[in-house]
Each structure stands twice: as C-alpha cells, then as structure tokens.
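Notes to self, AP complex mu/sigma subunit domain-containing protein:
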Amino acid sequence: MVFAFIISTLTGERPFVLFYQVYTEIAPTISSEPSDSQSETVGHLSRTRGCKSHIAGIAETVHSEYQFRRETKSITAEEDLARLTNDDTLPDFEMGHFTVPLSSLSSTFAASDSMFVTWMGAAFTGFTLVCEACENRLLAEHILRLIVRFLQEHVRVLNQPMEVASRVERVNEVLKRILRNGNLLFLNHRAVRQIEKELDSSMKTLS
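result:
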C-alpha cells in the first residue's frame, strides 16, 4: 500500500511541497500548493493539518539527504537540466530510502505499524513515495521511476516544477493509471505500453 506521493523542491534552504496525494482508509487527499499564500485542495480534507505537517517533515528529510549527496558529488541542478535532451532522456537521479519513526505516524495515514520512504530527485525537483513497511522496496523504486518518466513527458516537471500547480489534472491522470487506489502493483512491459497509450489519449483532453 502507498500512503502518499509527494513532489517537492530540492534547492534553497528549505523544501517547498508542490503537490501531494495521500491515500487513506476513507478517501485520497489531493493537494497542490502553488505558493505560500495560495493552496488548492481537492477530495477528503479531514486531518488536513496533521497531514500537511507529516508531508512537510518527509519533504525536509528528502531535501536534506539530496543536498548532502549533491555536495559530495559537486553536481549542480543546471547540469541536470543540460542532460534533458530533445529525446527526453532523463538525467541521473539521486535515490534514497529511509524509514519514518513510529512516533511521527500519528493518525494521518491508514492503520499501520510503520512505513518507509523511497525518493528520487534531480535538478530542482524531488519525488517521493511513502509506503507500508511490508511493501517491496525494489518495486516501489521501479514504480516511482515510471511515475517520474510520465510526469516529465506530460507535465515537464523537471524543466518547470512550478508549473505543477497549474497542471494538477495531468499529474492526477498519471497517478490514477499507475497507483490505482494507492496499490503498488508490478507492471510488465505490456502493461506499461497500455498505460502509455491511455495517457497519450487522455492528455489530449486536458489543458
């Protein structure tokens, strides 16, 4: 089970959460936060304050780990963007995993003893999956790579991360195809090809 998917910034002193979707026992909470003074929230809004606090804490940990790794490698965001060629070749991503302490779970997410976080980031943008502890971590990493691939193709999230706020429907469309009701499922080549076709068709109707 996936508890949450997060898109956040990786540069600057503190991260900024651009988008998150939380899957709970009742209904998903979806939020896009385009600026400090404006936010758009769709779906079930109970426990929103606690949810935002936990999401922000996870984004801060991802930001810290990413910054540390990039400092040791001396790679800049501009170098990542330069690797985005015309054929949509993705840059080399930093990737990591960490667990979230039981004390921070509260009642934000569906009942579970613990959860782990898988993240990947490049340029200015980080992507995070928060999963149940029993989930396969290699599968989580594979699914996260697929999500990022399709988000870059249809949202250009690495080139223009702040555009996520105005293209929430496209982000949701990608998540709906890959994370069905928050389930982490293995997708073979045929399934991925089918998702490609479905997204190509559905994106034509979205702005």
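- The longest strand covers residues 2-9.
- The first helix runs from residue 48 to 73.
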